[in-house]
Amino acid sequence: MKLTCPLCGGQMSERKIDYEFRKKDKYIVVKNVPAFVCVECGEQYFEPEVVEKILNSDIEKEGRRVTCLEEVEVNYAAL
Fold it and tell me: Which InterPro entries match (predicted)?
């Protein structure tokens, strides 16, 4: 089944990406996250269970405790 990007109509490709976001005062990088990425515009989409797993995980337990302006890097498979 081919997925099309709701933003531009381009074809979506299933890939593993590095997902970056802020959680409270921490900058988080989660490596190897399964995502659908548009080959035309680069827009990224995630399955609901992937988002839930990332947002509900305790990043500090998976990575290391950090202070403001530090970066936490974890692998999605470790969540």
Answer: Znf_MqsA-type (IPR022453)
| Phi, then psi, of 52 in degrees rounded to 5 | -60, -40
Q: How far is CA 12 from CA 15, 48, 76, in A?
A: 9, 16, 21
- The structure tokens 């827009």 sit at 43
Distance CA 36, CA 2 (A): 11
pLDDT at 66: 44
Secondary structure (DSSP) of 1-50: ---B-TTT-PBEEEEEEEEEEEETTEEEEEEEEEEEEETTT--EE--HHH
CA angle, 59 then 65 then 71, to 5°: 75
